[in-house]
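[audit] Reproducing an earlier prediction to check determinism. Same input, same settings, fresh worker. If the tokens differ from the archived copy the diff job will pick it up downstream; this log only records the rerun itself.
[audit] input (655 residues):
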Amino acid sequence: MAITLPELADYEKPYITKTKQLSEYYIDFCNFFAAKLPLLAAQDSKISQELKDSLKFLDWGLEPHKVLSLSRWTLGVGLLLALIFNAALFAAGYVSVIVIIFSGLVPFFLAYLITRYPKTEAQFERIESLGQAPNILTQLVIYLKQNPNLEKALHFVSSFSKGKIIDDLKKTLWTSLMGQKINLKEELGKIAQKWGETITELKRSIYLVIASVSEKNEIKRNATLDRAVKITLDGVMMKIKEYTQKLYLPTLFLFSFGTILPLVIISLLPIFSFFGNEFASPVKVFLMLILSLTAIYIYSNSVIAKRPPTFSSITLPEFLKTYPKAGNLKFRIMKFEFEANAKFYLTALFLLISFPGLLFLISKLPWISVYAGFVTAMLKDINTLTIIWAVGIVISLYCYGTSWYKQEMRDKIESLEREMIDGTYQLASRISEGRSPESAIQHIAKTMPGTKFGELMEQTYDIMKSRHTTIEDAFFNHRYGTLNDVYSKNFKLIMQIFVNSIKKGVDYCSQTLFTMSEHFDKLKKTEDELKQTLKNALSMMKITASIFAPMITGLVITLQQLIQNGLFESQASFGDLGYAYSTLSFLQAPAFSVETLQLIAGVYMIILAVMLIRYIVLLEFGKDEIMLKTEIAKNIPIALFIFTFTLIFSRIMLG
């Protein structure tokens, strides 16, 4: 049978307008500013080799000098805006060294982020691609055990997988199919050198795979292939354990400097106020928290970038008819599902929830006098709390409305892939007993009721019986095949090998199924062990994001309220004794109200929770957008509840 390059599956072909990714906006901006302002960075500009290598790896079609052009343009415009901003403040009579320094540093930071973004994306992409390596290697080994033909094995694996490693394999295969005289083993060796820099065990495994093709003895060949898989799995496991042991200090640092220290400083603001109102102004508190979040972001990225590859998450089709339209959110209430425009729905919801808090802030403006006292009294206990709720709820609903349906689909795929290990083993056992493959499928359908694997086998058998068709058609026919709506590449690969092996006899078929079950069982056990290892290391961070940080924030605000009340009582006491409060320079009123602090600290708590959850998900699951949104949607409501409960309970207990 002639080998052709794998085509895009039907379910992967777009049918709706694609929502732009951040990287696409980045590329558009770079191209735009390089075209409009070409003098900022010419092609012969001095550019770091890391940036060149990163852009080449990402294959964005973006020239490095265009990135430099956008970075320089951002720096120039940013400094100009900072100058105008500080001049306006100076004209208004407000001068602050901290604000001047901060506004001057922001353009440099943004310029740095622009040049850093491709490098970070390349690091994440490289880790994600290497995470696919154990699965690709397993697929390659399974095929080569049945047919030691390297060209056909590469074609087969390329049909069921994606990623940068697969792209390299496809290029090599394409070169071979185009009739160019290349040594496929040598080309595969080059791929091993390229991708083996991070995991040396992967390089060794690929060389063992290459060596197995020349092995004439089937027993020795199979032993070599088994060893190739074992070396890579052991290597990945060892690197993750080493990395996990080093996670203690970074996690402690993020917990201390991202959560505890900023909130402790906030709790001491009334004491700082003794030395003057300016020292603890809202602007400076806000800038301090922004700097804290920036430090957390940069530091967490540096920790994540050193993370060794684990296993890539299950990839879903980018487009499906069950997905909402671009720009829409999808919700489900009981059995009813509906879509809503994301911008309109979330904006309206934010305004609705935050309206009391916004009204309270408006009533505090100096030029607002009509009904201001009534509004302040009515909203005294709620004040800015509703704005914090609005921010958290909108973020949570956005993440939920763009992920829950994908998460459900992924859970189904994960369940199917777990069940297929035992299901494939049972299928092999029945065939080894002398049953026909059709009879074995019927038996599995009866003995595995209530499982997705059993249901799929039942549907397949019903199609074979009602349409009088072959097993291959029952699985893969583009009109009625049972695998048309199954998006597990591993499951399709197993079924394809199963169908191919039937043609070579019952004994060959059963042995093939036993081999596949064994290899995927090893892969799944190693994956579970890796996730458990990382989970244990990150459990404290999860509790911090959803419980400790909100609780500490609520207590800090209550403490601030108590201290300020004490200061106001001191004012009254000194006044009764005949002292002028203004003459006591060491005892000044706080520079801003508790309501303002509550708003700043509450929003900080939500953003901090999002950043910590991002850190956890990237470490545990890699660059997995679905899992990230799922965890945010799940943990932000918990954080809001803990924050509100702590705020109310502490005020009741402390009076």
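[audit] rerun output stored. Observation attached for the diff report: The beta strands are 328-333, 336-341.
[audit] end
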